């Protein structure tokens, strides 16, 4: 097990323990953490997230709020790509809601590998597996939310509206504390803060996992999975 895996696994165990109280996990990408193009160079947008353990032992609620992408004077958001672990199926995502935007489960079906240089997102910084979420009638401030039976991890987002695009500045940079979702920031291998967003992970909690009150039980779970996995 290399140092990145060790840090990530420890962070996951600590985060599972902390999640037992059901407190929301919140964070944001501020304007200085977003790279923008075209007319979005003239605004100061923010992307916020609130992720909450639904306390059912299996699912989390993911809510993303977009602020400052004002459709009255500049292009409104037409879609965004949210990174997911490769192979995440559509059936793992349910209970779609929105405030201030046209969004439901029908907008959440395009799961695939998005390739750098594709016409719809010419400034996509790297190939990324994720879901493309199409939106209608968005304004200056809107929120979309959904449930997933997947734990959070640090990842990337790419946003598009008209000819304008935006993405987190450290798009595709490797994260050392990948699963430490209670950390204030994603970190690289040398401890530098990264501009990342929390997204659904590939790890599906087993029934009752999120109810563990200490890290001991989850540590044993990690060890069992590590023992069952082939050596890298």
Descriptive account of the structure:
With 232 residues, this protein is mainly beta. It has one domain (25-206). Helix content is 13%, strand content 34%. The protein is built from two helices and 15 strands. The strands form four sheets. It has a six-stranded antiparallel beta sheet with strand order 2-12-11-5-8-7, with no helix packed on it. A hairpin with a 5-residue loop joins strand 13 (186-187) and strand 14 (193-194). Helix 1 (3-18) packs antiparallel against helix 2. Mean pLDDT is 82; it is low at 209-232.
Short description:
With 232 residues, this protein is mainly beta. 13% of the residues lie in helices and 34% in strands. It is globular and about 45 Å long.
Shape: globular
- Structural class of the secondary elements? mainly beta
Low-confidence stretches: 209-232
**Strand-residue proportion:** 25-35%
Find the count of extended strands (DSSP E, 2+ residues).
15
- How many discrete structural domains? 1
Radius of gyration, in Å, reads: 18 Å
Mean pLDDT equals 82
Note the total helix count. 2
The helix fraction, in percent, is 10-25%
Order of helices and strands: HEEEEEEEEEEEEEEEH
Topology overview:
Layout: H1 3-18, E1 25-29, E2 34-36, E3 46-53, E4 60-67, E5 79-83, E6 93-99, E7 110-114, E8 128-134, E9 141-148, E10 152-155, E11 157-161, E12 164-168, E13 186-187, E14 193-194, E15 197-200, H2 215-228
Antiparallel strand pairs: 1-3, 2-12, 3-4, 4-9, 5-8, 5-11, 6-9, 7-8, 10-15, 11-12, 13-14
